[in-house]
Task: structure prediction
Amino acid sequence: MDFEGKTAIVTGAARGIGRGIALELARRGSNVIIADIDEEPAREVVAEIQAGGTGANYCETDVTQQWSTDDMVEAALEGYGQLDVLVNNAGVGGAPGFATRKTPNIDDWQATFDVNVYGIVNGIQSVEKYMTDRGYGKIVNIASVAGRLGRPGFASYGASKAAAINVSQAWAFKLAPHGINVNAVCPGLIWTPLWQSIGEWRSSMDEQHAGMTPRQVFERAVSDAVPLGREQTPEDVGNAVAFLASDRARSITGQALNVDGGIRMN
Amino acid sequence: MKLTGKVAVVTGGATGIGRVIALKLADRGAAIMIADINEEAAAVTAAEIEEISGRSATFTTDVTDVETCRELAAATVDTLGPADFLINNAGIAGAPGWQERSFSTEEDWKRTYQVNVIGMSNVTSAFRPQMTERRSGRIVNIASIAGREGRPAIPHYSASKAAVISLTQATALELARFNITVNAICPGLLWTPMWEQVGDRYARDNPAYKGMTARQVFDAMIEERIPMKKEQTPEDVADTVAFFISDDAKNITGQALNVDGGFFMR
Result:
């Protein structure tokens, strides 16, 4: 058990990929702070983890606010006395209603940047002093295969995820001499609330997908794009995060690992 | 993950990084086929493995010989069973005497390409039928950060390792439909017999390292180039191999992961 006695924060852990990451870390022995803006589903993840026998707490967190990520770190230290792992997973596809717009508007650009990029920066800035003083820490940022190559459609989302990879490299470099590893994971096609919105968007905007349900749009994307021929899961991402956040990956930093069945090969 | 009942083939598994990979997988219960050109050293490592997992075999293998590679694949089935994992680790830095030369010769180019690239393709082709037939398999190719960027010091080696990354992607795409994943690892700076020779060459040819011992050159490189300020170890590489062959990485393919303390971030 790589994470026995350790404590991790996972932002955006109430659902989707973040929930998968939280559960995988907990399964390996970690206490987990479920940091999310949405209390009700977050409480369910807390209960699920506690039932498995490790510690879990909900911390209401808005990653776009530095004071809020500061509170989140405070909650981890108060609750468990130490913080070993920070997973910056919280992300959005755009501003509310983004799936109803043909192209992203200024609000979408702003929202993706605020959460997907600046949210990571806030998270790191809230832990870096603590981890540097301690000379130990693991940070994993959730980017996306969308950040590997610019594509039309939701260019704002892709751009924000490319920035997330760049931010990971910047802090990997900065924190490396202090025994802190910073890496990114780029998930591929995962059936989450975000993908549900993308599916709705494509079926309403794109002739090729007219009349399809979001799930059908998703399945077509999987068969078109994934060499391994199957969708990826939140557990897959959780497993990759668990590796990168473990001491087995002690010499890996500044890397972005695609968990995408071979969609992109960098 | 426990690997009991699984069979792993490690080329170049008798010494250096390959040996440590073999011991790591044996430690998790796998039976190991040591495929190495050095018969004597292979026997020593196999004896070590016998004490750990109880099951090992050796096959004297020149990876540049297609027929021998086929015999290796057949011998693996006969002695241990069909291969679940193939670790393509065998590699060289140049033709005999390369460390004495200041510039790569045609022989260095040919020999290095023959072993590091064509040899890898030979072994992969030989094991392909037993993996595709069972619709499962994991292949991990050992590349190098030298393959991430052309450098003047040993250009033939860098080019061969870039080719390994490319070969990994091609093989990953080819074998994805058979549920076989293929990934590469790019080790950074490891204090191995090869690096000792690289260090001597630098000390002789590069004014910046004039008069230093090989180890001093190595230490200076770490200080200059590795953000984590630490050398990497065969153990680091072996831990990453163990991740790629585990179920945790079942949806990761075609990737090249740097295990290099942040030397390269792409």
